[in-house]
Design a protein that fits this description.
This protein is of the alpha/beta class and 238 residues long. The chain has one domain: LmbE-like (Rossmann fold), CATH 3.40.50.10320. It contains 6 helices and 9 strands; from the N terminus they run βαβαβαβαββββααβ. The strands form 2 sheets. Strands 3-2-1-4-7-9-8 form a 7-stranded mixed β-sheet, sandwiched between helices. It has a two-stranded antiparallel sheet with strand order 5-6. Strand 1, helix 1 and strand 2 form a beta-alpha-beta unit. The longest helix has 18 residues. The chain is globular, with a radius of gyration of 17 Å.
């Protein structure tokens, strides 16, 4: 299956927190979108692998993505080496996306920056024909996405551009709340973490509202890019 957009996250819920409004919008426009989680988030203070698997499946259904896979890398300990790069390359060549979305280049959680660089490097390497990969016994063709964008996470990084998600903010928040084990629940008896407070959950929506305010829309999501953005004319800019 060829996808238009492939979004990577170091952990289940990274994509939902960072760019689910954009994903929901693109799906509504008829684009085929997939999600690849690098790890199961097994080191998370709350929940379990089984619970998070169920939550990510629910979030995927809410967003309407075409496919979601997990590469079972070690949470907290995966590295940017040949073995891990080849796993990403297999996915890029399998789905041949035009656009790749991935973790913030730098962030509070060390896996976010690592995941960002790993995916970005693999996107380049995936286009080299002399790197040979197989999937299910079949040789894969080289494929390089046209562009890689990084969504914003914990840190308030200045975006290079924003996407208007005004009509999809409810869908975004619904997909985030699918991860009931990870976020605010006044009845939970599990340990408190930086992301379990109501304040954090409110901040997710507030950031989208603030980015939207800066460009004259209700809600937006921000992204950074590794190269200059190009437009056909000034009229393409809003």
């Amino acid at each position: 299956m060829k996808l238009d957009i492939l979004a990577f996250g170091a952990h289940p819920d990274d994509v939902e927190l960072g760019c689910s409004g954009t994903i929901a919008k693109e799906v509504s426009l008829g684009k085929k979108v997939g999600i690849i989680d690098l790890t199961r988030g097994e080191l998370g203070t709350r929940g379990s692998v089984e619970i998070r698997n169920s939550e990510s499946a629910k979030a995927s259904e809410i967003l309407g993505v075409s496919v979601r896979e997990n590469l079972d890398m070690r949470d907290g300990f995966f590295v940017n080496d040949e073995t891990h790069q080849l796993k990403i390359i297999q996915m890029i060549r399998k789905y041949q996306p035009e656009i790749v979305l991935c973790n913030a280049i730098t962030d509070r959680h060390i896996d976010h920056g690592k995941g960002s660089k790993l995916v970005s490097d693999a996107c380049f390497l995936s286009g080299l024909v002399k790197i040979e990969t197989e999937l299910n016994g079949e040789k894969q063709q080289a494929w390089r996405p046209k562009i890689v964008y990084h969504y914003i996470q914990w840190q308030n990084i200045e975006p290079d551009f924003v996407v208007d998600i005004s009509e999809f903010i409810d869908k975004k928040m619904e997909s985030v709340l699918a991860y009931g084990s990870q976020f605010y629940d006044p009845n939970s008896k599990e340990p408190v973490t930086p992301i379990t407070s109501k304040t954090f959950l409110d901040s997710v929506k507030y950031r989208a509202e603030d980015l939207g305010r800066l460009v004259g829309v209700a809600y937006a999501e921000g992204f950074t890019t590794e190269r200059y953005l190009a437009v056909n004319s000034l009229g393409d800019l809003k």
